[in-house]
Amino acid sequence: MLPVDFTAFFSYHHRAYLRYAYVQLGGRADAEWVVEEVFSHLALNWNAVLRQPSVEGYALAALKDQIAKLLVVRGRDKPALVETALFAAVREATRARMEVLESGLGLYTAITRLPDRQHDVVVLRFVLGYPVPRVARIMGVTPATVRSHVRGARRRLAREVGVDWAGEEEE
After folding, report:
1. 86 in a structural domain
2. pLDDT for 76-95, tens place per residue?
3. Spatial distance between the Cα atoms of 107 and 155, rounded to a whole number of angstroms
4. Both 99 and 157 in a single domain?
5. For the chain, how many structural domains are there in total?
6. Of the candidates 168, 169, 160, 67, which has an alpha carbon nearest to the alpha carbon of residue 114?
7. CA-CA distance, 51 to 67, in Å (whole number)?
8. Which of 44, 46, 66, 157 has the fewest CB atoms in 10 Å of its CB?
9. Can you state the angle between helices 132-139 and 55-73, rounded to 10 degrees?
C-alpha cells in the first residue's frame, strides 16, 4: 500500500510530468517510460524524498535526470522541444503573446538554450500553459521566483533573437 501523501503527490504531478517529458522527448512511449521510472524511484524512496528540502524540486530534478539519460541513450544531444507537435499546437494558441519574440533565429531553439530554471519555467508556463501558482508548486518554488525566472527568460530570449522586449507583467 502506497502512502497517502505519495498518492496525492502522484495525482497532482503525474499529468504535468507526462506533458513535460513528452515535450522534451517528442514521443509518448518514451515520456510514459521516463515518468513511470521517476515515480517508481520516488515511491521506493518516499521516506528519504520527504526529508529533502523541497520534495517538488527533488522530484523535478529526478524527472529531468531521467530525461537527460534517455536522450543520451537515444543519441540525442538536445530535447525535442523544437520538433514536438504539442509545442506547435500550443504555439498557435499562444501566438499573440509570443509573436513579438519570434524571428529567423528561432525562438524555440533559443528556449532550449536557456538556463535550466528559466527553461523549465518557460516550458511549464508557456508551452504547457500552467498558471504561475501551479508552475511554482511543480517546481517547488514560490510564485515570485517563477515570475522572476519568466522575466529573466524574456530578457535573455529577446536579446538572443534581437528584439526589444517590453512585455506585460506576468500575473
Report:
1. no
2. 876 666 555 445 555 555 55
3. 12
4. yes
5. 2
6. 160
7. 24
8. 44
9. 80
